Protein backbone atom coordinates (compact mmCIF):
# COMPACT_ATOMS: atom_id res chain seq x y z
CA UNK A 1 0.00 0.00 0.00
CA UNK A 2 1.49 3.32 -1.04
CA UNK A 3 0.35 5.85 1.52
CA UNK A 4 1.71 9.39 1.30
CA UNK A 5 2.03 10.20 4.99
CA UNK A 6 5.24 12.18 5.25
CA UNK A 7 8.17 13.32 3.15
CA UNK A 8 10.82 11.68 5.34
CA UNK A 9 9.07 8.30 5.13
CA UNK A 10 8.69 8.36 1.33
CA UNK A 11 11.43 7.03 -0.94
CA UNK A 12 13.75 9.81 -2.16
CA UNK A 13 13.74 8.65 -5.80
CA UNK A 14 9.94 8.45 -5.70
CA UNK A 15 9.73 12.04 -4.45
CA UNK A 16 11.90 13.21 -7.35
CA UNK A 17 9.84 11.17 -9.81
CA UNK A 18 6.64 12.76 -8.46
CA UNK A 19 8.10 16.22 -9.05
CA UNK A 20 9.08 15.26 -12.61
CA UNK A 21 5.58 13.95 -13.21
CA UNK A 22 4.01 17.07 -11.70
CA UNK A 23 6.04 19.31 -14.01
CA UNK A 24 5.15 17.20 -17.05
CA UNK A 25 1.43 17.25 -16.22
CA UNK A 26 1.52 21.00 -15.63
CA UNK A 27 3.24 21.61 -18.99
CA UNK A 28 0.86 19.29 -20.82
CA UNK A 29 -2.22 21.28 -19.82
CA UNK A 30 -0.76 24.79 -20.09
CA UNK A 31 -3.31 27.30 -21.34
CA UNK A 32 -6.32 25.01 -20.94
CA UNK A 33 -9.36 26.00 -18.92
CA UNK A 34 -9.11 24.72 -15.35
CA UNK A 35 -12.00 22.34 -15.78
CA UNK A 36 -10.71 20.77 -18.99
CA UNK A 37 -9.72 17.12 -18.75
CA UNK A 38 -6.07 16.07 -19.03
CA UNK A 39 -5.21 14.06 -22.14
CA UNK A 40 -4.39 11.15 -19.89
CA UNK A 41 -7.21 10.07 -17.54
CA UNK A 42 -5.37 7.92 -14.98
CA UNK A 43 -8.08 8.35 -12.34
CA UNK A 44 -10.97 7.31 -14.60
CA UNK A 45 -13.37 5.23 -12.54
CA UNK A 46 -11.67 6.19 -9.25
CA UNK A 47 -13.46 7.74 -6.29
CA UNK A 48 -11.50 9.91 -3.87
CA UNK A 49 -12.66 10.93 -0.37
CA UNK A 50 -11.34 14.28 0.87
CA UNK A 51 -11.88 14.50 4.62
CA UNK A 52 -11.39 17.76 6.50
CA UNK A 53 -11.37 18.09 10.26
CA UNK A 54 -9.96 21.62 9.89
CA UNK A 55 -10.74 24.46 7.45
CA UNK A 56 -9.04 24.58 4.05
CA UNK A 57 -9.09 26.54 0.82
CA UNK A 58 -6.06 25.39 -1.17
CA UNK A 59 -5.94 21.73 -0.15
CA UNK A 60 -9.64 21.27 -0.65
CA UNK A 61 -9.89 22.95 -4.03
CA UNK A 62 -6.59 21.69 -5.46
CA UNK A 63 -7.31 18.04 -4.62
CA UNK A 64 -10.86 18.28 -5.92
CA UNK A 65 -9.85 19.95 -9.20
CA UNK A 66 -6.83 17.65 -9.60
CA UNK A 67 -8.90 14.48 -9.30
CA UNK A 68 -11.45 15.77 -11.82
CA UNK A 69 -8.77 16.80 -14.32
CA UNK A 70 -7.44 13.23 -14.16
CA UNK A 71 -10.90 11.74 -14.76
CA UNK A 72 -11.78 10.70 -11.20
CA UNK A 73 -14.58 11.69 -8.86
CA UNK A 74 -14.43 13.21 -5.40
CA UNK A 75 -16.49 13.57 -2.29
CA UNK A 76 -15.55 16.27 0.17
CA UNK A 77 -16.40 15.31 3.75
CA UNK A 78 -16.30 17.32 6.92
CA UNK A 79 -15.02 15.30 9.86
CA UNK A 80 -17.60 16.76 12.20
CA UNK A 81 -20.46 15.66 9.97
CA UNK A 82 -19.17 12.07 9.88
CA UNK A 83 -19.70 9.44 12.55
CA UNK A 84 -15.95 9.82 13.08
CA UNK A 85 -16.78 13.02 14.93
CA UNK A 86 -19.40 11.17 17.01
CA UNK A 87 -17.49 8.26 18.44
CA UNK A 88 -17.01 5.77 15.59
CA UNK A 89 -13.46 4.55 15.73
CA UNK A 90 -10.90 5.62 13.17
CA UNK A 91 -10.17 1.97 12.41
CA UNK A 92 -13.81 1.22 11.61
CA UNK A 93 -14.13 4.40 9.57
CA UNK A 94 -11.04 3.38 7.58
CA UNK A 95 -12.41 -0.11 6.93
CA UNK A 96 -15.79 1.24 5.83
CA UNK A 97 -14.44 3.99 3.58
CA UNK A 98 -12.14 1.47 1.91
CA UNK A 99 -15.24 -0.37 0.66
CA UNK A 100 -16.49 2.76 -1.14
CA UNK A 101 -13.50 4.78 -2.28
CA UNK A 102 -10.14 4.17 -3.94
CA UNK A 103 -8.13 6.85 -2.13
CA UNK A 104 -8.48 8.87 1.09
CA UNK A 105 -7.04 12.32 1.75
CA UNK A 106 -7.27 13.35 5.39
CA UNK A 107 -6.66 16.68 7.12
CA UNK A 108 -6.76 16.19 10.86
CA UNK A 109 -5.38 17.32 14.21
CA UNK A 110 -3.30 14.63 15.92
CA UNK A 111 -1.16 12.72 13.44
CA UNK A 112 -2.06 9.47 15.25
CA UNK A 113 -5.49 9.75 13.55
CA UNK A 114 -3.83 9.84 10.13
CA UNK A 115 -1.54 6.94 10.94
CA UNK A 116 -4.41 4.87 12.33
CA UNK A 117 -6.48 5.60 9.23
CA UNK A 118 -3.57 4.38 7.10
CA UNK A 119 -3.11 1.27 9.22
CA UNK A 120 -6.70 0.12 8.85
CA UNK A 121 -7.54 1.39 5.35
CA UNK A 122 -7.10 -1.01 2.47
CA UNK A 123 -6.70 1.94 0.07
CA UNK A 124 -3.94 4.59 0.06
CA UNK A 125 -4.15 7.49 2.51
CA UNK A 126 -2.67 10.96 1.90
CA UNK A 127 -1.70 13.44 4.62
CA UNK A 128 -3.53 16.71 3.92
CA UNK A 129 -1.98 18.36 7.04
CA UNK A 130 -1.81 17.39 10.69
CA UNK A 131 -0.74 19.38 13.73
CA UNK A 132 2.73 18.00 13.11
CA UNK A 133 3.37 17.95 9.35
CA UNK A 134 2.18 19.19 5.93
CA UNK A 135 3.98 17.16 3.24
CA UNK A 136 1.74 18.09 0.28
CA UNK A 137 2.60 21.74 0.81
CA UNK A 138 6.30 21.09 0.70
CA UNK A 139 6.02 18.98 -2.46
CA UNK A 140 4.44 22.04 -4.09
CA UNK A 141 7.22 24.22 -2.67
CA UNK A 142 9.88 21.90 -4.11
CA UNK A 143 8.17 22.04 -7.50
CA UNK A 144 8.08 25.84 -7.26
CA UNK A 145 11.76 26.03 -6.39
CA UNK A 146 12.65 23.81 -9.35
CA UNK A 147 10.62 25.96 -11.73
CA UNK A 148 12.31 29.17 -10.64
CA UNK A 149 15.81 28.09 -9.70
CA UNK A 150 16.44 24.45 -10.69
CA UNK A 151 18.30 22.10 -8.35
CA UNK A 152 17.80 22.77 -4.65
CA UNK A 153 20.80 20.70 -3.55
CA UNK A 154 23.12 22.62 -1.23
CA UNK A 155 20.91 25.73 -1.14
CA UNK A 156 20.26 27.67 2.06
CA UNK A 157 16.63 27.86 3.18
CA UNK A 158 15.78 30.12 6.10
CA UNK A 159 12.60 29.54 8.07
CA UNK A 160 11.64 32.62 10.08
CA UNK A 161 8.97 32.41 12.78
CA UNK A 162 7.12 29.46 14.27
CA UNK A 163 8.76 26.04 14.00
CA UNK A 164 5.40 24.46 13.16
CA UNK A 165 3.96 21.65 11.03
CA UNK A 166 4.97 23.22 7.70
CA UNK A 167 8.47 23.89 9.04
CA UNK A 168 8.64 20.21 10.05
CA UNK A 169 7.91 19.05 6.51
CA UNK A 170 10.49 21.54 5.21
CA UNK A 171 13.06 19.91 7.51
CA UNK A 172 12.07 16.52 6.11
CA UNK A 173 12.57 17.91 2.62
CA UNK A 174 15.99 19.29 3.60
CA UNK A 175 16.99 15.73 4.44
CA UNK A 176 15.46 14.18 1.34
CA UNK A 177 16.37 16.83 -1.25
CA UNK A 178 19.77 17.74 0.19
CA UNK A 179 19.44 21.41 1.11
CA UNK A 180 20.49 23.23 4.28
CA UNK A 181 18.17 25.06 6.61
CA UNK A 182 18.48 27.75 9.24
CA UNK A 183 15.65 28.24 11.68
CA UNK A 184 15.25 31.69 13.18
CA UNK A 185 12.59 32.19 15.81
CA UNK A 186 12.08 32.24 19.56
CA UNK A 187 13.41 29.29 21.58
CA UNK A 188 9.88 28.47 22.78
CA UNK A 189 8.77 27.79 19.20
CA UNK A 190 11.75 25.80 17.93
CA UNK A 191 11.00 22.97 15.51
CA UNK A 192 10.94 19.51 17.05
CA UNK A 193 14.42 18.22 17.87
CA UNK A 194 13.53 14.90 16.23
CA UNK A 195 13.10 16.56 12.82
CA UNK A 196 16.29 18.61 13.17
CA UNK A 197 18.17 15.40 14.01
CA UNK A 198 16.51 13.63 11.08
CA UNK A 199 17.69 16.26 8.57
CA UNK A 200 21.18 16.29 10.07
CA UNK A 201 21.35 12.50 9.88
CA UNK A 202 20.78 12.79 6.13
CA UNK A 203 23.74 15.18 5.80
CA UNK A 204 21.97 18.57 5.81
CA UNK A 205 23.39 21.45 7.80
CA UNK A 206 20.62 22.63 10.12
CA UNK A 207 21.30 25.72 12.19
CA UNK A 208 19.39 27.72 14.76
CA UNK A 209 20.08 31.46 14.85
CA UNK A 210 18.06 33.74 17.12
CA UNK A 211 18.91 36.88 15.17
CA UNK A 212 16.81 36.88 11.97
CA UNK A 213 19.12 39.36 10.23
CA UNK A 214 22.13 37.10 10.78
CA UNK A 215 20.08 34.04 9.87
CA UNK A 216 19.09 35.27 6.41
CA UNK A 217 22.65 36.13 5.35
CA UNK A 218 23.35 34.07 2.24
CA UNK A 219 19.78 32.73 2.09
CA UNK A 220 18.53 31.42 -1.26
CA UNK A 221 14.99 31.09 0.04
CA UNK A 222 13.15 32.72 2.94
CA UNK A 223 10.00 31.04 4.23
CA UNK A 224 7.50 31.84 6.93
CA UNK A 225 4.01 30.83 8.03
CA UNK A 226 1.21 32.10 10.23
CA UNK A 227 2.00 32.85 13.86
CA UNK A 228 -1.12 31.05 15.09
CA UNK A 229 -1.82 27.72 13.41
CA UNK A 230 -5.20 26.03 13.30
CA UNK A 231 -4.19 23.68 16.12
CA UNK A 232 -2.99 26.53 18.36
CA UNK A 233 -5.41 27.88 20.92
CA UNK A 234 -6.54 31.44 20.21
CA UNK A 235 -5.73 32.16 23.87
CA UNK A 236 -2.03 31.91 22.94
CA UNK A 237 -2.36 34.54 20.21
CA UNK A 238 -1.04 37.51 22.14
CA UNK A 239 1.88 35.57 23.58
CA UNK A 240 2.77 34.20 20.16
CA UNK A 241 2.58 37.61 18.52
CA UNK A 242 4.87 39.05 21.18
CA UNK A 243 7.37 36.22 20.74
CA UNK A 244 7.28 36.31 16.95
CA UNK A 245 7.08 40.00 16.11
CA UNK A 246 10.85 40.26 15.73
CA UNK A 247 10.76 37.51 13.07
CA UNK A 248 8.44 39.25 10.62
CA UNK A 249 9.59 38.87 7.01
CA UNK A 250 9.72 42.42 5.67
CA UNK A 251 11.69 44.27 3.00
CA UNK A 252 14.43 45.13 5.48
CA UNK A 253 14.97 41.47 6.36
CA UNK A 254 14.86 40.39 2.70
CA UNK A 255 17.65 42.89 1.95
CA UNK A 256 19.97 40.81 4.14
CA UNK A 257 19.32 37.63 2.11
CA UNK A 258 20.90 36.95 -1.30
CA UNK A 259 19.79 39.43 -3.92
CA UNK A 260 18.00 36.73 -5.90
CA UNK A 261 16.49 35.01 -2.85
CA UNK A 262 12.93 33.80 -3.24
CA UNK A 263 10.15 34.20 -0.67
CA UNK A 264 7.61 31.45 0.05
CA UNK A 265 4.57 31.12 2.30
CA UNK A 266 2.11 28.22 2.26
CA UNK A 267 -0.82 30.62 2.75
CA UNK A 268 -3.19 31.68 4.21
CA UNK A 269 -1.05 34.65 5.24
CA UNK A 270 -1.79 37.36 7.74
CA UNK A 271 -0.58 40.45 5.93
CA UNK A 272 1.31 42.77 8.25
CA UNK A 273 1.94 40.04 10.81
CA UNK A 274 4.38 37.28 9.80
CA UNK A 275 5.02 38.99 6.45
CA UNK A 276 4.39 42.40 4.96
CA UNK A 277 2.37 42.99 1.81
CA UNK A 278 5.47 44.57 0.30
CA UNK A 279 7.24 41.20 0.42
CA UNK A 280 4.19 39.10 -0.46
CA UNK A 281 3.49 41.16 -3.56
CA UNK A 282 7.13 41.91 -4.35
CA UNK A 283 9.34 40.48 -7.10
CA UNK A 284 10.96 37.81 -4.90
CA UNK A 285 7.64 36.30 -3.85
CA UNK A 286 6.45 33.07 -5.50
CA UNK A 287 3.50 32.46 -3.17
CA UNK A 288 0.86 32.10 -5.86
CA UNK A 289 3.03 29.70 -7.87
CA UNK A 290 3.28 27.63 -4.70
CA UNK A 291 -0.49 27.70 -4.35
CA UNK A 292 -0.95 26.66 -7.99
CA UNK A 293 1.59 23.89 -7.66
CA UNK A 294 -0.44 22.27 -4.90
CA UNK A 295 -2.65 21.14 -7.77
CA UNK A 296 0.09 19.68 -9.95
CA UNK A 297 2.20 18.18 -7.15
CA UNK A 298 -0.79 16.47 -5.55
CA UNK A 299 -1.91 15.03 -8.88
CA UNK A 300 1.50 13.37 -9.03
CA UNK A 301 1.17 12.21 -5.41
CA UNK A 302 -2.22 10.63 -6.14
CA UNK A 303 -0.90 8.85 -9.24
CA UNK A 304 2.03 7.53 -7.24
CA UNK A 305 -0.32 6.25 -4.52
CA UNK A 306 -2.57 4.51 -7.01
CA UNK A 307 0.28 3.42 -9.29
CA UNK A 308 -1.52 4.79 -12.33
N1 LIG B 1 -1.59 25.90 2.43
C1 LIG B 1 -2.71 25.24 2.74
O1 LIG B 1 -2.72 24.04 3.07
O2 LIG B 1 -3.84 25.99 2.63
P1 LIG B 1 -5.31 25.58 3.06
O3 LIG B 1 -5.35 25.52 4.57
O4 LIG B 1 -6.19 26.65 2.49
O5 LIG B 1 -5.63 24.21 2.50
N1 LIG C 1 0.65 26.14 10.01
C1 LIG C 1 -0.63 26.38 9.41
C2 LIG C 1 -0.63 25.94 7.98
C3 LIG C 1 -1.91 26.15 7.26
C4 LIG C 1 -1.87 25.66 5.84
C5 LIG C 1 -1.70 25.65 10.20
O1 LIG C 1 -1.50 24.50 10.56
O2 LIG C 1 -2.74 26.27 10.47
Automatic annotation (TrEMBL):
Keyword presence, Cytoplasm: yes
EC numbers: 2.1.3.3
Catalysed reactions, as listed in the record: carbamoyl phosphate + L-ornithine = L-citrulline + phosphate + H(+)
Keyword Coiled coil among UniProt keywords: no
Aspartate/ornithine carbamoyltransferase carbamoyl-P binding domain boundaries: 2-147
Main location as per UniProt: cytoplasm
Gene Ontology biological-process entries: citrulline biosynthetic process; L-arginine biosynthetic process via ornithine
Pathway in which the depicted protein is active: Amino-acid biosynthesis; L-arginine biosynthesis; L-arginine from L-ornithine and carbamoyl phosphate: step 1/3
Localization terms from the record: Cytoplasm
Gene Ontology cellular component annotations, sorted alphabetically: cytoplasm
Residues annotated to bind L-ornithine: 165, 225, 229-230
A Pfam family recorded for this sequence: OTCace
All copies of domain Aspartate/ornithine carbamoyltransferase Asp/Orn-binding, residue ranges: 154-304
Residue numbers binding carbamoyl phosphate: 56-59, 83, 107, 134-137, 266-267, 294
Single annotated GO MF: ornithine carbamoyltransferase activity
The entry's keywords: Cytoplasm, Transferase
Function in brief: Reversibly catalyzes the transfer of the carbamoyl group from carbamoyl phosphate (CP) to the N(epsilon) atom of ornithine (ORN) to produce L-citrulline.
Similarity comment: family membership: Belongs to the aspartate/ornithine carbamoyltransferase superfamily. OTCase family.
HAMAP family according to UniProt: OTCase (MF_01109)
Name of this chain's protein: Ornithine carbamoyltransferase
Organism, scientific name: Donghicola tyrosinivorans
